[in-house]
Amino acid sequence: MRLCLPRHVLTRATATLALALAMATGTTGLLSGTEAHALPVTDGSFSFSGDEGDYISGGQSYTYATSSQDHLNVSGNTDNRVITLSVDGANGDWWTLDLAAPAGRTLTPGTYTGATRYPFNDATEPGLSLSGNGRGCNELTGTFTVSAVEFGPQGYVKKLDATFEQHCEGFTPAARGEVHIENPAPPAELGLGLDIALAGTASSLNGKATFHGTVSCTKPVQVTVAGDVTQVKKRDLIRGSFSTSVSCTPGTPVAWTGTAVPTGSVPFQKGDVEVEGHATATDPDYGRQVTVDETVAVRLTRV
């Protein structure tokens, strides 16, 4: 399969990789928390300007807004410590802004001083990074003020009002800007249910065991149902596994059927087996995999 990407996406990826390689000298750091799924900003704006001699801004001013057909995407991390804003301007500009509280703290309203370059900031320091259009700081100092912030589940960013000031390489010239984001109330997280019927069949023809049940969901998703099967007969330990996929829509449980093939030469037989089942789907709103487990004893009849 050939993957085609828009030119601005390829340009951003190439430039970001180059920046990462160029900046990864003399500093070390660890990312904290799990990045959430980036979502489009419904109503927002981002602007900044720089002093003469500031490397990032080039001494220019920049303004972007969803009302001007600029694309803004925002994500938090799951511990609500970091917010990342990416901007794709209608004119082809692209920028990324990171704001991070010190390790172990939630990003809340207040002023964060002594910020250094995220994600290489020390655990006790806040993190800040404005980069884009092929430019970034190797080291930086700065401060930012969060006037308002609201999170939802899984790092969903409902609201953000913040200002920042960044000095590249510790120089006096600075870039100063602000961001305003207003998104709808966060959608609920995906809920899944799994039911495994207590009766199955063992084929006398091929030794396979067949199981069935239902899955339920709170959003339309593709659900993978898989399971590991164990049966003990006399001195034989019989094992196998099954996997199947079904389309699930909210409101009505959806039936599934799976067939386990014995891993050895001994077939599944009439009697009890243990089934460790799992139903897995990706939450379309948060890009997060959701899994529910169910372990039951199933009675096989011979067919």
Architecture overview:
The chain folds into two domains: 7-182, no CATH class; 192-302, Sandwich (Immunoglobulin-like), CATH 2.60.40. It has 303 residues and is mainly beta. The radius of gyration is 26 Å and the shape is elongated. Helices cover 6% and strands 53% of the residues. An eleven-stranded mixed beta sheet has the order 1-4-5-6-8-7-9-10-11-2-3, with helices on one face. It has one helix at residues 7-23, and strands at 39-40, 43-50, 61-65, 71-76, 82-88, 94-100, 110-117, 127-132, 140-151, 157-168, 175-182, 192-196, 199-202, 209-217, 221-233, 236-248, 254-262, 271-282, 289-302. The protein is built from one helix and 19 strands.
Strand order, largest beta sheet: 1-4-5-6-8-7-9-10-11-2-3
How many domains in all? 2
Distance between the termini: 42 Å
Regions with little confidence, pLDDT below 50 for 5+ residues = 1-32
What is the N-to-C order of secondary-structure elements (H for helix, E for strand)? HEEEEEEEEEEEEEEEEEEE
Proportion of β residues?
over 45%
As a percent range, the share of helical residues equals: under 10%
Q: Using the CA coordinates, give the radius of gyration.
A: 26 Å
- The overall pLDDT, averaged over residues, is 90
- Overall shape: it is elongated
DSSP E strands, number: 19
